[in-house]
Amino acid sequence: MTLLADLLEDGDMASSLPQTVRPMFKLMIDLLAELDEQIATLNREIWRG
Fold first, then answer.
1. Residue 39 CA to chain centroid, in angstroms?
2. Distance, CA of 37 to CA of 31 (rounded, Å)
3. pLDDT of 13-49, one tens digit each?
C-alpha cells in the first residue's frame, strides 16, 4: 500500500492522472490504510484467543 501511495505522490505518476481523479485516489489510499490497521487489530485479538 505504501508503494501505491508513493506512486501517487511521484511526479510522473501523479501527472499522468487527471487532476479531478487525484483526490479520490488519495481517499481510497487512506481508506485502505485504515482498513489495514483494523485488520491488524483483529488479527492480534484472534491470536490472543
1. 14
2. 10
3. 667 778 898 889 889 989 999 999 999 999 999 999 8
| Sequence spans of domains, the chain | 2-48
Cα R_g (the chain), whole angstroms: 15
Give yes or no for a contact between 8 and 14, defined as CB atoms under 8 angstroms apart: yes
Question: DSSP letter at 18?
Answer: -
Cα–Cα distance between 8 and 29 in angstroms, integer? 9
At residue 21, what are phi and psi to the nearest 5 degrees? -90, -30
